[in-house]
Every structure is written in structure tokens, then in C-alpha cells.
Amino acid sequence: MPPELPYRPNVGAVLFNRAGLVFVGRRAPRDHTDQGAGAWQFPQGGLDKGEDPRAAILRELAEEIGTDRAEIIGEVPGWLSYDLPPALVGVAWKGKWRGQTQKWFALRFLGEDADIKLDAETPAEFDAWAWVKLAETPAMAAGFKRPIYERVAEEFSPLAAE
């Protein structure tokens, strides 16, 4: 992997409903480089230059699931990074990044299920969604993201339904 490629700054949301379950979306296929298609994941997205991560996570929720009706209730200390699989380096994100460095937030969902609209952005990030137990999410994630999901699940486990 070319060491000169930087990590893409990113934010991630673990969105808890009133029952302590978390939102996951199934990644819709976008193009031939999308090895994450079909995997379940939390909403996440790129951080614009100079953008505050707390503002960015609400923007990402609105873009990806059609609602930002949430409040931040927790944050993983520091940033968590992952590398892309070697076959995607130089291909994904137009070859600009080696992986992502992410700031993760826990949020309480203040809306209703009907507020969630997967077609809020085109093309849609997700083609299905569900509320699941936080402890189940690492096994649902794409393999190269699994260590991040394990850390996030551990960090936010006090907020989760058992």
C-alpha cells in the first residue's frame, strides 16, 4: 500500500432508538469497486474540510437516512482508522485515500420510524434498514471494518439494549 496516501476524514453514527436498539442500513451496490455492497453498516460519511464533526454527523444522517432528528449522547475518544482492502487502494474514492479515519458518535433518535427515508440522497446509500442489538453489529459489517465496529460496540455498550 502506498504510504503516501492519507486517510479520508469521516464521521460515523450509532443511532439508538428508544428501546436501545441501533440503526443499520444495508449498503446498496453503487459501482464495480463497491466491495461493501450488501453489508450492513452504521451511517457514516466524509468530513468536509473545516467542518465540525458534530455538525457533520447530523448532516450525514439527513443525507443517508433522510432525517437528522437526533441528539448526540456519546463519543468515542480520539479517531479510529482502517485501511481499505489492497484491491481497492487506488480505486475507491478515485484513488485518493488508503482508508478512513473516523470520529464516532452515539446519538439518540428523536423521531419516528416513518421519518427514515432511504431515498433522501441519490443514489441511495442503503437499500434496506433495521433496528438491531448493538452486540450483533460487528458480525454484520464488511470484514475490513469489523475491528472498528467491535471497538464502537464496546464503547457504546452501556447505552444499548441487552
UniProtKB/TrEMBL annotation:
It holds the Pfam family NUDIX. One of its GO terms (molecular function) is bis(5'-adenosyl)-pentaphosphatase activity. Keywords: Hydrolase. It comes from the Bacteria. Its EC number is 3.6.1.-. One of its GO terms (biological process) is nucleoside phosphate metabolic process. Residues 6-154 form the Nudix hydrolase domain. It is an enzyme of class 3 (hydrolase). Its cofactor is Mn(2+); Mg(2+); a divalent metal cation. Transmembrane segments: none annotated. A motif (Nudix box) lies at residues 45-66. Belongs to the Nudix hydrolase family. RppH subfamily. Accelerates the degradation of transcripts by removing pyrophosphate from the 5'-end of triphosphorylated RNA, leading to a more labile monophosphorylated state that can stimulate subsequent ribonuclease cleavage. This is RNA pyrophosphohydrolase. It comes from Humitalea rosea.
